[in-house]
Amino acid sequence: MALTGVEIFKLLPKTNCKKCGFPTCLAFAMKLAQRQASLDSCPDVSEEAKQKLGEASAPPVRPVVIGSGEKAVKMGEETVLFRHDKRFVNPCAFALEIKDTLTEADINNKVREVISSEIDRVGQKLRVDAIALVNDSNDAGKFESAAKLIAREAPEIPVIICTTNPQAADAAAKLFTDRKPVIYGVNTENTEGMVNVAKSYKATLGVAAKSLDELSGLTEKIKSLGIEDMVIDSGARKAKEILEHNTLIRRTAIKKNFKPLGYPVITFAQREDSLVESLIAATGVSKYSSIIVLSSIEKWKNLALFTLRQNIYTDPQVPMQVEQKVYKVGEPTQESPLFVTTNFSLTYFIVSGEIENSKVPGYLAVMDCEGLSVLTAWAAGKFTASKIAQFIKESEVENNIKHRELIIPGYVAILSGALEDKLEGWKITVGPREANGIPAFLKSRAA
Ligand code: SF4
């Protein structure tokens, strides 16, 4: 059972030293009880208390890592039901299903689709994260051959080995020993066999149940056999069921600290109709799935799901930002125009996109305004004439251009006079108010 705030408080040093960032030990204890603080923040807590508080301070959804190296995926570790309470921690992973009944050429094509799925959006790399190899043939030899192909062609991609046959699981898992695979398919009939395979290869077990009750019984049994890392599947396949089960799983894990359901959820969204599959996957992204298995990864589908995932897992209290620097758009020369704007991601992408649309290469000086848009930053005193002038001087953009003309957003035309005073020798030009006016603006200058 979870400890209450008062029970936790009794175990703390009670010196109110504030080193944890909270004004009192009691305030810290309350946050620990709500899982909104980490015990590590108190440097003076005793070893004995640490042991007792370990369970209370552990995240209610167990953290699990699949894969290794740069493309490893961390999931779980969630502490809240709603992202406005505290941001969701680890974005869900998308996995492409590859059946072992496919031809070698088709498997290779699917692997290539996964490898080339990466896109850059608002400064973040987004991709299909994993391959779910499915033992569709029920033939351990065929499964092993397909696993060999994937191990060779996709050496960095995390793998989910989907089979209910412990021999097939063993044959495939031994090819991914250095990659922390998930072995999905442990059920009430093959528990011991699958647990042994997972132990041999230090793999995460994917628990396949037919109901929530069966699921909680299975995870308890698997844990008692010595496996800690699991991802769980309640058997839900319809969108309504997925929504219901995922919500119940997250709620009981977080609100009741019910450990048998405190694991990342794997959702199988495969459908013949790609649009329906996308909608089911979107339900999983929005409501608590940690791995979503897809049957196909068309570009349109990826873009929609990546964008949704990025939005759900962004901290709603922190605006998305890009790095402060002078960006090149196209291949600018020393004569190319120089624009300035703020580092709100959306602003950056819209402005740079419109410069690109104009087909006139240019420089875009992006100033750190804590992720605020132009007007908000100006109103907050973060995008002022003196700050812009200082940024332009320090950016050393002068080394890249012969001219001394700076184009400012039309919304802050009011800054032009003061900016000319601060930036000696520079001409300040007022650009369009909206970024979509940039192509016409640049065209009129060329005429
Ligand atoms: Fe109390 Fe520890 Fe926080 Fe100090 S750091 S106020 S002892 S909980």
Strand order, largest beta sheet:
10-9-8-7-6-3-12-11
Q: Work out the number of β strands.
A: 17
SS-based class:
alpha/beta
Global Rg: 27 Å
Bound molecules: iron/sulfur cluster
Shape call: globular
What integer is the average pLDDT?
94
Strand content: 15-25%
Count of discrete alpha- or pi-helical segments spanning 4 or more residues = 16
Largest sheet: 8 strands, parallel
- Low-confidence parts: none
| Helix content bin | 25-40%
Kindly, what is the distance between the CA atoms of the first and last residues, rounded to a whole number of angstroms? 74 Å
Structural notes for this entry:
This protein is an alpha/beta fold and 447 residues long. It has helices at 5-11, 25-33, 47-57, 104-115, 140-153, 166-173, 191-200, 212-224, 239-255, 274-286, 299-312, 345-358, 374-379, 385-395, 416-422, 438-446; strands spanning 64-66, 73-75, 93-99, 119-121, 124-126, 130-134, 159-162, 182-186, 204-208, 230-233, 265-268, 289-294, 325-329, 338-342, 362-367, 405-408, 427-430. An 8-stranded parallel beta sheet has the order 10-9-8-7-6-3-12-11. Strands 13-15-14 form a 3-stranded mixed beta sheet, with helices on both faces. It is globular, with a radius of gyration of 27 Å. Residues 12-13, 15-20, 22, 25, 28, 42, 44 line the site of iron/sulfur cluster.
